Each structure stands twice: as structure tokens, then as C-alpha cells.
Amino acid sequence: MRVLEAVNTPGYYYSIAYWLAAFIIVCTNQRKIEGKRKYLIHVVCLTALVSFMGLTDGVRQWLFIPCMIIVISMLLVYIYLCCNFSLCKSGYYCARTFICGEFAASLAWQLYYYFARNFAMSRIQIAEWGIMIAVYGIIFGLMYYLEKYLQKDFQEFHINRRELITVIMIAAAVFAVSNMSYVSKSGPFSSRFAAEIFIIRTLVDLSGMVVLYAYHIQVRELQMKFEVDTLQNILQMQYKNYQISQESIDIVNQKYHDLKHQISLLKSEVGNAGASEYLEQMEREIKIYEAQNKTGNKVLDAVLTSKSLYCQNRKIGLTCVADGTALSFMDDMDVSALFGNVLDNAIESVEKLKDAEKRLIHLSVAKQKGFLRIRVENYCEEKLKFENGLPVTTKKDKRFHGYGIKSIQSTAKKYGGSVTVALEKNWFELRILIPVQG
């Protein structure tokens, strides 16, 4: 095998490696399309990459960069079409995919060159393809495992421009250094010998892949910490709201208790029939308040009273049928966070409705067959998208929204429960099922 021929890794090595790396990303993330279209896009992308890189194999130096830009664009389109990613997130994964493909192709060809030179192997297709399959199987098998592991317990990975620019700069630097020998034989990272070129290229690509994965893990850890801190802040905020509401309710109850005695006293002293009837009416209205939001759980009572007053001011119809005693096994902070978030989400949804008659929310809490069943229904005219069985926030900046439903899910999970949602005939329904302890 001639040195010049050996140095130029065949285009199909790279095209297959790029496609496999992108295919792993598609398989380990939520897909945008399903069915026959999915398989068609896989085949079209692989065919396009292999054909294009085969036709441009050994192209002149001044055409090398434009051709690579086209290849990267193909990978970007492939990932964007197949995965439920934004363009920014697709670019982020495309950069990582490109360097993984570079490393796999470089290592496979270097190993084949080593065996061909040292063991007098001619360029036999069986040996060449055997080495390629073995190397690609190990590298992309590890890549698949890593991608699945990094998504464990953390599905929503957000990417902004800063993170996109960072990975593009890393990938560009790695690609430039690893391919320096093709541009100039006299550079500080260049060599005139095939073996040295392979070592430089493979080690630089490996280092780049390690750096990109390290950066990915760091971003993931920061986002996980941010999410945990945010959920904890929501929990504490809802509990503080409960405490404030409870203090206000205690003051009102004290005044209500005094008012009951004052009305009884006035009734005994008033001889006028009209005045007595008026006092009796006041007494009946006060008894209505006494019966209102008395579920058997003081935390739930305080949350319901606070939200009921808010709903009255905004012409929202909130009805509730709740057995608060079924919540006795739950911590007060969890009860306030769970029902505070449940009702806040429902209120936020119905507030968007222009017709006040459609602003309806119903809450039910009951213990049935060893389970605590919580159901919240509200009228909804939005067309919601669902991911992993939960609604996706409709707000543009998804990084700082959608934590209400995450907090609900986290609280339910704490007690071994589950959360399901559904939207049918303009009625949004959230169900929480928790096994009753003890």
C-alpha cells in the first residue's frame, strides 16, 4: 500500500461513521417522526453521505472545506428532521456527532494500515471491513450506552446559543488540528509520515470527543442542579404562601367567632321582626362560610380558601369535593406544594379564556381502594403538545417554565405515586394516584 494512498482515509469510512454517530443520537432521543418516513430518512441520509463523500474523495485542498461544510449540513438536517430538537439543539448534537465520526473513522483506518503494513496484508476487503465493523461496533456501542446513561432521570436537556457556540469552537479546533497534515506538511501539528499523521489525527479526535462529552456532562449537571434548586424553591414558596394564608384565615376565623356571638346577643335584645330576620340572614351567610373549605386537613383548607378568593376576584368558578383526612400521611409542605401547584396551573390556564363562563375548575380528593386519588379538571382551548406523557410549556423560554408540573410529579413520586394528564373535548384533566401508606 502506498503511503499517499494510506494517508487519505477512504470517504466511505467517514460517511458511514458520521451516519452511525447521528443514528445513535436519533435512537436515544425523542423522535419527531415515526413509521415508514423514519426509515426512509435514515436510508436517504446514509445514501446521500456515502455517495457525496465517494464522489468527492481525494478532492483538491481548496475544495476540501466546502465539501466538509456540505457533509456537516447533511448531518444537521438529518438530526433536525428526525429528532424533536430545536435548530440550536440540533447544531449542538451535530458538532458532537461529527467529532465522534471523525474519531471512529480515523481509528478504524489506522488499525487497518497498521496490520496491512506489519503483517504483509494486502488490501483485502474482508480484513478491511472486519476491522471497520469491530471498531465501529465498540465505539458506537459505547456511545449508545453513554447517551442512554446521560439521559437517565433527566430528559429535558436545554441548549442555548452560548453552549452551541462552545461546542462548535471545540469541534472546529479539533478538526483543524487533526487535519493539519493534509493542508501543510511543515506545520507544528503536521508530519510527512503516514503513521505519525494517524497518531496525531486519532489522538486529537479522541481528545476532542472526550472534551465534548466532559462539557456535555458539565452542562447536564448544572441543569440538573438548577432544576433541583428550582423545585425546592417552588416547594418552599408554596409552603410560605400556605403559612401566610393560614395566618389570614386565623384572623378571619377569630373575627367570625366573635361576630357569631354578637349576632346571637343582638337577636336576643332586638324586638323588631324585620331586624331579627336581617340578623338571621346574616347568621345563615356566616354558617355558609363555616361550612366552606372544611375538608379535614388544615393545610388543604388554607390553600383552597386562598385560591377560592383569588378565583372569585377573577370570575373563575372553582368547585371542590375533598376528603382532607386522606392526606394525613403526607407532610404539610408537600400538601401545600402539591395543591398549590395543581390549582395554580389550572388557574393560569383558565385565565387565558375570554369567556368568563368557561373559566371552570373542579378538584376532587378521595381515598379509594388503598389509593389517594386526586383529580383536577379545567376547561382549556389551547392545543397542547405532550412529551413523555406530560404537557410541554407553550412559553418561548422553556428553560424557566414548566416547573409547576415537574413539582407535582416530584411530590407524587416521593410517595410512590404517579401523574397522568389528558386533554379531551377541551377539558384538561390531571390525575394523581398515590398509594396510601399504612
The coarse overall form would be: elongated
Proportion in helices: 55-70%
Structural class based on helices, strands and sheet pairing:
alpha+beta
Which regions are unreliable across 5 or more consecutive residues at pLDDT < 50? Answer: 1-5
Strand line-up in the sheet with most strands: 1-2-3-7-6
Q: Tell me the span between the first and last alpha carbons.
A: 76 Å
Largest sheet descriptor: 5 strands, mixed
Q: Could you state the order of secondary-structure elements as H and E?
A: HHHHHHHHHHHEHEEEEHEE
**Overall pLDDT level:** 80
Number of distinct beta strands: 7
Strand content range = 5-15%
Number of helices: 13
- Indicate the radius of gyration in whole angstroms: 32 Å
In a nutshell, what does this entry contain?
This protein has helices at residues 3-7, 11-27, 36-55, 61-82, 87-118, 125-150, 161-178, 180-183, 194-269, 273-291, 298-313, 332-350, 403-414; strands at 317-322, 360-368, 371-379, 386-387, 390-391, 418-424, 427-435.
